[in-house]
Design goal:
312 residues
Length: 312
């Protein structure tokens, strides 16, 4: 059994990496494979689009001239979106699994199974829900602001600021209330679109504090990563300017290669560590709020049965 502590949960990502340092390599490999597949899939459309963009540069193109480019953009989007959803589902489930079942660490907790399918579906549906909420909030803020502004400019500005801040709070509040969807899906092996709502009842402020701490830690990771990478990148850039001035393409590519490799490796490591730091806390919060420990081998009581405190 364990109780929920916002501060403890906020640092769960670091504990995941400390327990299983190899997850950084596995998740970096997943990112690398994703970008390689994406580049192979959309490289052709991108190369086909570049000459068309250059041809339109400095002119006011008609819709007939823009349509081929828009079609290429659509093709790229149709390829990139499913790949992005798949990568997100695999990594989200892996991070949750690293906290919920730390004993199943093979392949960096990554799988391709029904958990990933459920995570993909749930996150996609929730993304649509949040898009609808965002559009509705923007519409309400705009309508309220214009209604007052037409009669009183100063009052309209004040109403716009107040309504905008209120809309931001509502959006954040709903995001926090639904933030445990992925851990519930992975822990309970079922679709759980809105089950997080009941589990997070009365826990908004503590979960918000946890999220803010994790966000700050992710920024710290990014800054430290940049500081560590800087001397490596300078070393890779040694003699780069002289090579560029020579103008030989083979020499230029040879000079760029080490710089690109260093940049890619550093960014992959930083990105995967940030991913763990940002998402692991929510799985830890699930364990704390349900009163369970790690390695969930026994059947899990649905979160709908967990009573919450008064909201907010």
């Amino acid at each position: 059994m364990m109780a929920f502590s916002a501060t403890e949960s906020a640092f769960e990502g670091f504990r995941v990496v400390r327990r299983n340092p190899l997850v950084i390599l596995w998740w970096s490999l997943a990112y690398l494979i994703f970008f390689a597949v994406l580049l192979a899939a959309v490289g052709g459309p991108i190369l086909a689009m570049l000459p068309q963009l250059q041809a339109l540069e400095g002119s006011e193109p008609s819709m007939d001239e823009l349509m081929p480019i828009l079609n290429l953009y659509g093709t790229i989007l149709l390829i990139a979106m499913p790949l992005g959803i798949l990568l997100g589902a695999v990594l989200n489930a892996a991070v949750a699994r690293s906290v919920l079942s730390p004993g199943s660490s093979a392949f960096g907790f990554m799988r391709l199974g029904m958990d990933e399918v459920r995570v993909a579906v749930v996150t996609f549906v929730l993304a649509l829900v949040f898009i609808a909420i965002y559009v509705a909030l923007v519409g309400v803020v705009a309508a309220a602001t214009m209604a007052v502004y037409s009669a009183n400019e100063g009052g309209g500005v004040a109403v716009g600021i107040l309504a905008g801040l209120t809309a931001i709070f509502i959006f954040i509040w709903m995001a926090i209330r639904l933030s445990l969807a992925v851990p519930i899906v992975v822990a309970e092996n079922r679709f759980a679109f809105f089950d997080s709502w009941g589990l997070t009842k009365g826990r908004f402020w503590s979960l918000l504090g946890m999220t803010l701490i994790a966000f700050v830690m992710a920024i710290v990771v990014s800054v430290l990563g940049a500081i560590i990478a800087m001397p490596l990148q300078f070393m890779g850039m040694a003699g780069f300017e002289e090579t560029i001035s020579g103008g030989e393409m083979e020499s230029i590519l040879a000079a760029i290669g080490p710089v690109v490799i260093v940049a890619v490796v550093v960014n992959l490591i930083i990105s995967t560590l940030q991913f763990a730091v940002l998402y692991a806390p929510f799985a830890s919060a699930y364990l704390g709020l349900t009163g369970r420990g790690g390695d969930l081998e026994s059947p899990v009581e649905p979160v709908a049965a967990v009573s919450g405190e008064p909201d907010l």
